[in-house]
Automatic annotation (TrEMBL):
InterPro entries: Papain-like_cys_pep_sf, Pept_cys_AS, Peptidase_C1B. Its EC number is 3.4.22.40. It catalyses: Inactivates bleomycin B2 (a cytotoxic glycometallopeptide) by hydrolysis of a carboxyamide bond of beta-aminoalanine, but also shows general aminopeptidase activity. The specificity varies somewhat with source, but amino acid arylamides of Met, Leu and Ala are preferred. It comes from Cotesia congregata (Parasitoid wasp). The active site is at C83, H383, N405. This is Bleomycin hydrolase. Belongs to the peptidase C1 family. Keywords: Cytoplasm, Hydrolase, Protease, Thiol protease.
Length: 464
């Protein structure tokens, strides 16, 4: 049999990085003297810090035409993924502090975090049961996804509404931080290990034909162990609290004994009712048209609670509603991809934050559209924060926004970030505003039956 030796060797090396190709890369690199200078700088420093745009720093300031009544202290979620809880409580405390004439105040973030861990574990176990009954194999993508991180710290707006409507709120002095609430990885390691073990137990008894009553009895036994782990690590909230405090005039006050739910209903809800707020997202993927309601499969935290739903609208509407809300002294919860085009130390989000082209010789503009970044895994919601300020141009279009973060005072401008409107358009995906600011036709979308997105869809990443 005749073999063409030339075509044989060509097929063998096609697409391979041969020594000749690598030599060409090497030569081209050192022919450009800018590469040598860039290499000298970047091998000694943070590459993004090296290309931070000086001109952008000079034109960025933290002065705004409109600001809400911001509250101290600046919060810090430490080594945890509780941003969604911190952002929510930072919004709620603004009218609360005004009403009760407080110098500074925090609601207890670990209080909601405790209940989320308990509820999230129960929700996960019931999802395991649901998928097993549907005939999903453990190797299938859905079950594999659920098992990957069954008890993450993140969450979504509807999920925190579920917690507050079931357990209420308490002041932070009544349930303070623990070592684990500020550094959650150890507890999450224990919970993840047990939940995977419990998932196998449940799937085994379902395969053996267990009744629904037997399945629920098994989950009860499993959840007793989960409760023990979380309670040991975080402490357990008291059934009733008594809150003693001084107002700005140094007058003494006391509220309680009272449950967390009654504390919310009687002392918080009249001034911030979470049921009056609506969550809008902007997902520009062609397969997800605006004006429709979406949900993500298996995404939630409270069994029997509200589903996590997304009312998809154009990004310019979201930006406009943020401006309207802040002008009325109402802060806005939002979800974004925080790390992109971010000058962390200086505290600003700008498309032009870094002059990447001068350092690396690559285009500094967006190589992918916002829709394509979602499709190709380049973008997703990763962090929740609060809008507290806004500025407009003469035509009343938003130009920049003030952001309250939850990373302490050491980052940014004493914990605050200045964000350009252009950055908002590219990297903000979700806002929560009062119904009164939202057009009737947008509110009507909430009456639709939601379209179900797969569990791994990027619109769910803030809670995954």
């Amino acid at each position: 049999m005749y073999i063409n030796i030339n075509s044989f060797f060509f097929s063998l090396i096609a697409g391979m990085l041969t020594s000749k190709i690598l030599d060409e890369f090497h030569q081209k690199f050192y022919e450009d003297k800018k590469n040598i200078l860039a290499q000298n700088v970047c091998t000694k420093s943070d590459p993004l810090e090296c290309c931070l745009s000086r001109s952008n720093i000079e034109k960025t300031n933290h002065v705004f035409q409109h600001k809400v009544s911001e509250v101290k202290p600046m919060t810090n979620q430490k080594n945890s993924g509780r941003c969604w809880i911190f952002a929510t409580l930072n919004v709620i405390r603004i009218p609360f502090v005004k009403q009760y004439n407080l110098e500074e105040f925090e609601f207890s973030q670990p209080y909601l975090f405790f209940w989320d861990k308990i509820e999230r574990s129960n929700y996960f176990l019931h999802n395991i049961v649901k998928t097993a009954k549907q005939g999903e194999k453990v190797e299938d993508r859905l079950v594999s996804f659920l098992l990957h991180d069954p008890t993450c710290d993140g969450g979504q707006w509807d999920m925190i509404c579920n917690l507050i409507n079931k357990y209420g709120l308490v002041p932070k002095s009544c349930f303070p931080e623990s070592w684990t609430s500020e550094s959650t990885s150890r507890m999450n390691f224990l919970l993840t290990s047990k939940l995977r073990e419990f998932a196998k137990e449940l799937r085994n008894i379902i395969t053996d034909g267990a009744s629904d009553d037997l399945i629920e009895k098994k989950i009860y036994e499993q959840m007793n162990i989960i409760y023990r782990i979380v309670g040991i690590c975080l402490g357990i909230p008291a059934q009733e609290i008594t809150w003693e405090y001084y107002d700005k005039s140094k007058a003494y006050h006391s509220i309680g004994p009272i449950t967390g739910l009654d504390f919310y209903k009687k002392f918080v809800k009249p001034f911030y009712n979470i049921d009056d707020k609506v969550c809008l997202v902007t997902d520009p993927r062609p397969s997800h048209p605006f004006g429709h309601l979406y949900t993500v499969d298996c995404l939630g935290n409270v069994k029997g609670g509200h589903d996590t739903v997304y009312n998809n609208q154009p990004v310019d509407l979201l930006l406009s509603l943020v401006g309207k809300s802040i002008k009325q002294n109402e802060a806005v919860w939002f979800g974004c991809e925080v790390i992109k085009r971010f000058a962390s130390k200086q505290g600003f989000h700008s498309i032009d934050a870094h002059d990447i082209n001068s350092l690396f010789g690559i285009d500094t503009q967006m190589g992918l559209s916002k829709a394509d970044r979602l499709i190709y895994g380049e973008s997703s919601m990763t962090h929740a924060m609060v809008f507290t300020g806004v500025s407009f141009d003469p035509d009343e279009k938003v130009t920049k926004l003030r952001v309250e973060n939850s990373w302490g005072e050491e980052r940014g401008e004493k914990g605050f970030i200045a964000m350009t409107a252009d950055w908002f358009m590219e990297f903000v995906f979700e806002i929560v505003v009062d119904k009164k600011f939202v057009p009737a036709e947008v509110l009507a979308v909430f009456q639709q039956k939601p379209i179900v997105l797969p569990a791994w869809d990027p619109m769910g990443t803030l809670a995954q």
